[in-house]
TrEMBL record:
The chain crosses the membrane at residues 58-78. It comes from the Eukaryota. Its cofactor is Ca(2+). This is alpha-1,2-Mannosidase. PANTHER family: ENDOPLASMIC RETICULUM MANNOSYL-OLIGOSACCHARIDE 1,2-ALPHA-MANNOSIDASE, MANNOSYL-OLIGOSACCHARIDE ALPHA-1,2-MANNOSIDASE-RELATED. Ca(2+) binds at T663. Residues 190-218 are annotated as: Disordered. Residues 202-217 have a biased composition (Basic and acidic residues). It catalyses: N(4)-(alpha-D-Man-(1->2)-alpha-D-Man-(1->2)-alpha-D-Man-(1->3)-[alpha-D-Man-(1->3)-[alpha-D-Man-(1->2)-alpha-D-Man-(1->6)]-alpha-D-Man-(1->6)]-beta-D-Man-(1->4)-beta-D-GlcNAc-(1->4)-beta-D-GlcNAc)-L-asparaginyl-[protein] (N-glucan mannose isomer 8A1,2,3B1,3) + 3 H2O = N(4)-(alpha-D-Man-(1->3)-[alpha-D-Man-(1->3)-[alpha-D-Man-(1->6)]-alpha-D-Man-(1->6)]-beta-D-Man-(1->4)-beta-D-GlcNAc-(1->4)-beta-D-GlcNAc)-L-asparaginyl-[protein] (N-glucan mannose isomer 5A1,2) + 3 beta-D-mannose; N(4)-(alpha-D-Man-(1->2)-alpha-D-Man-(1->2)-alpha-D-Man-(1->3)-[alpha-D-Man-(1->2)-alpha-D-Man-(1->3)-[alpha-D-Man-(1->2)-alpha-D-Man-(1->6)]-alpha-D-Man-(1->6)]-beta-D-Man-(1->4)-beta-D-GlcNAc-(1->4)-beta-D-GlcNAc)-L-asparaginyl-[protein] (N-glucan mannose isomer 9A1,2,3B1,2,3) + 4 H2O = N(4)-(alpha-D-Man-(1->3)-[alpha-D-Man-(1->3)-[alpha-D-Man-(1->6)]-alpha-D-Man-(1->6)]-beta-D-Man-(1->4)-beta-D-GlcNAc-(1->4)-beta-D-GlcNAc)-L-asparaginyl-[protein] (N-glucan mannose isomer 5A1,2) + 4 beta-D-mannose. Pathway: Protein modification; protein glycosylation. One of its GO terms (biological process) is carbohydrate metabolic process. The keyword Disulfide bond applies. The keyword Transferase does not apply. It comes from Loxia leucoptera.
Length: 674
């Protein structure tokens, strides 16, 4: 036993030692020691007093040091958590209503976690089975691409395959970076009314992208869809590099063309990016919309084109993303287009100055095109539903009511022009399902579907028109006996068919799916075969703008004849659009295969290596298709979107009982779902 006293008595030169004094029981090594608080306090104090000054200083310093480090590390953890919490809140903000996410007292320390809970940064696991949260809005930020299924068959050309491989590689890299993309954003239930829209307007100010309880597992993206994604990215690269914020890319001259000066391609492509799951591209484009898209401009725009591409694109993107920015912009452009309806007849003018609020017909006439004034209804009706402002709907409904009772039709077929002063059809006697009349027929059916199949006048006009088509415009070609839709001019049949007419098989199939005559489906099947032949019988495998069918068999002649003025291809969507409907409703894989051929031919003859795709002047010359140096906005808005949907086996990827596509391929919700 050491004792300070003993050491001192021994005259030890070292004074810095620790003395321990044991009590009698401790010294005796027996139990039952006194462990009372008072005794312990006294004993500690005694021991403290027995320490040298140096010993006390060392101990005090150690305590101080531990205390300071404790405080520092505590604050650091708080910061780390705060940043984690904030990050996850930011992420969710893009997915959910901001007010729902505001936490009154944000957490400072991590909440207790259940053993085994995966709270790491692994969204692909947690998102495969999203938490069941009604009203959670989906966006690209919580989307994912699954690896393509190994068993998927892929009929490829070498170049496309390589591109797909590159894309798969790129996807792998993205995955490791945990950048999650997917089309799942589209697999959502539209929020639809079961009442007529007018009576529930205020409740309907919601996008359709509301997740439901019974959300299914995502269907994996297949190789053909990946090829579409690759094509889209290539087109987007050209647009981004050389035409960003402008209307159309000129991929060869690496510049752009301006039509309205409103970033047409960017807006037209928004919902395609959403559906394809292109998160980064979508976010970039959104930023441009938020910061740079201004409608207050002294510029004349075409009412129809800006309605279907801009208003339609903004509305559908609002529905898919739930982002109110797009609705605000839609309201803005919708209001600015309204002066077009200030005409003596209420049949709108073709052009509007969206900055000045004035409207006018084209310089050479006071006529408007029939297809144009009757194919803006889906968009304006939806805008009324969302805003509660009936003026949009009233204006376009009036046009339809007027046309419904107008004379000058031929068994439901309409002429191509209508006068904005008199409200009468002009240039009577010419009937076509092609340019200037096409989407009149399409929108009769689609408005009827949009409104819950209640507006009988629309259905009557549609059914009568299809009877008119059968009676006056259908013929069969030689040698293959392809059924085609020609034109009637003052009683004379012309075997001319625009590629634009190829929307018809899809529309007929959609009608049949919605309970209309079964023979509409039969007609759709024969017509889509014809549209496919308009590609297959041509040297490049791409359709010209217009074909003439042979009515008489001639040795060495195909069904399809092409005039020099008609042999261009503008990357139009109509055939692919109809292939999509046909595949959805029949499940016949040949439609996918035909679409795949077309995609490969677009890649072969219209793809520009430095980015983008171009219209071509000559589909009959594979060695020089004569690129036109223009990528139309509908290539991204429609053609590639319909391709992607065609290759999908997921009927919930824009479910056709819940959405109706406008004529620019922008899906809008059906008000009363089937
Ligand atoms: C698009 O703007 C629309 O599909 C319109 O209905 C017809 N023309 C182009 C595509 O070809």
């Amino acid at each position: 036993m050491y004792s300070g006293a003993a050491a001192a008595a021994a005259g030890s030169p070292r004074r810095d030692f620790i003395s321990v004094t044991l009590g009698p029981e401790e010294a005796a090594g027996i139990g039952g020691y006194n462990n009372s608080k008072a005794w312990r306090r006294r004993s500690c104090w005694r021991k403290w007093k027995q320490l040298s000054r140096l010993q006390r200083s060392v101990i005090l310093f150690l305590f101080a040091f531990l205390a300071v480090s404790g405080v520092i590390s505590f604050t650091g953890m708080g910061e780390t958590w705060k940043s984690i919490t904030n990050k996850s809140l930011d992420d969710q903000r893009t997915e959910q209503e901001i007010p729902r996410l505001k936490l009154a007292n944000p957490a400072v320390l991590p909440a207790p976690q259940k053993a085994g809970a995966n709270h790491g940064d692994y969204p692909e696991f947690s998102l495969q089975k999203p938490p069941k949260q009604p009203h959670v809005r989906r966006g690209p930020s919580n989307l994912q691409i699954k690896a393509p299924r190994r068993d998927m068959r892929l009929k490829t050309q070498h170049d496309t395959m390589r591109a797909v491989e590159e894309l798969v590689e790129a996807d792998k890299v993205e995955k490791t970076e945990k950048s999650i993309i997917s089309w799942r954003g589209a697999v959502i239930e539209p929020d639809q009314s079961t009442e007529p829209p007018s009576s529930k307007i205020m409740e309907l100010e919601k996008p359709s992208s509301v997740e439901t309880e019974d959300q299914k597992e995502p269907v994996p993206i297949n190789e053909r869809q990946l090829a579409v994604i690759e094509a889209f990215r290539h087109a987007w690269k050209g647009y981004k590099d050389f035409a960003w914020g402008h209307d159309e890319l000129k991929p060869l001259s690496k510049s752009y063309s301006e039509w309205f000066g409103l970033g047409l391609t960017l807006i037209d492509a928004l919902d395609t990016m959403w559906i394809l799951g292109l998160k980064e591209e979508f976010e970039e484009a959104r930023k441009w919309i938020a910061n740079d898209l201004v409608f207050d401009k002294n510029v004349d725009v075409n009412l129809f084109e800006s309605t279907i591409r801009i208003l339609g694109g903004l509305l559908s993107t609002y529905h898919l993303s739930g982002d109110s920015l797009f609705l605000e912009k839609a309201k803005d452009i919708g209001n600015r287009l309204m002066p077009a309806f200030r005409t003596p007849s209420k049949i709108p003018y073709s052009d509007v100055n969206i900055g000045r609020g004035t409207a006018h017909p084209p310089r050479w006439t006071s006529d408007s095109t029939v297809a144009e004034v009757t194919s803006i209804q889906l968009e304006f009706r939806e805008l009324s539903r969302l805003t509660g402002d009936e003026k949009f709907r009233k204006a376009v409904d009036e046009v339809m009511k007027h046309v419904h009772i107008l004379s000058g039709k031929n068994d439901g077929l309409v002429p191509m022009f209508i006068n904005t002063n008199s409200g009468q059809f002009t240039h009577l006697g010419v009937y076509t399902l092609g340019a200037r009349a096409d989407s009149y027929y399409e929108y009769l059916l689609k408005q009827w579907i949009q409104g819950g199949k209640k507006e009988n006048e629309l259905l009557e006009d549609y059914m009568r028109a299809i009877e008119g088509v059968k009676k006056h415009l259908l013929q069969r070609s030689e040698p293959k006996k392809l059924t085609f839709v020609g034109e009637l001019a003052h009683g004379h049949f012309s075997a001319k068919m625009d590629h634009l007419v190829c929307f018809l098989p899809g529309t007929l199939a959609l009608g049949a799916h919605n309970g209309l005559a079964a023979d509409h489906m039969k007609l759709a099947e024969t017509l889509i075969e014809t549209c496919y032949q308009m590609y297959a019988q041509v040297e490049t495998g791409l359709s010209p703008e217009i074909v003439h069918f042979n009515l008489h068999a001639q040795k060495g002649h195909k069904d399809v004849e092409i005039k020099p003025a008609d042999r261009h291809n503008l990357l139009r969507p109509e055939t692919v659009e109809s292939l999509f409907y046909m595949y959805r409703f029949t499940g016949d894989k040949k439609y996918q295969d035909w679409g795949w051929e077309i995609l490969q031919n677009f890649n072969r003859y219209t793809r520009v290596p430095t980015g983008g795709y171009t219209s071509i002047n000559n589909v009959q010359n594979p060695s020089n298709p004569e690129p036109r140096d223009k990528m139309e906005s509908f290539f991204l808005g429609e053609t590639l979107k319909y391709m992607f949907l065609l290759f999908s086996d997921d009927i919930d990827l824009i479910n056709l009982d819940k959405y109706v596509f406008n004529t620019e391929a922008h899906p809008l919700p059906i008000w009363v779902p089937a």
